[in-house]
Here is the input.
Amino acid sequence: MKRLSFIVLAITIGLVTQSTSCRDPKDAPVECGDIACTMMFAMITVEVKDNNGNAVVLDEHYTIRESNGAKITPDSQMPNSGTYTVLDDSFVSTLKNRQEKFRFIGKKNGVEVINEPYTISADCCHVNKESGKSEITL
Here is the structure.
């Protein structure tokens, strides 16, 4: 019985080691079929505050994909918290195994008050922020 338990444990460890859940985009395989992803839904967010540290509620916000000018409005929002989603895992299939440049746009009273660049990558499972602000003070 102990031998059977040891064999099962060894096989389990081998399978877990072999199917790494998230890999660096530079090292990730072209095909993602053998990757086991976590159930986590990743979001790249930015906090927008005023000079006093209070949350700023924008009238409109979206992300522009610089490669083609596409306007992306992520579904996930945290209203009245001043926290906005730049990009989330719903974009993984479009971006997997590479990185691109994006711009987060925020408007208040019809005026563009935020235009911040981001470089975002994705592996087979999740989006990752390579560069860009986590907090913006207006």
The chain has one domain: 2-137. Strands lie at 43-49, 60-65, 70-72, 83-88, 98-108, 111-122, 127-131, 135-137. Residues 79 and 115 are 20 Å apart (CA to CA).
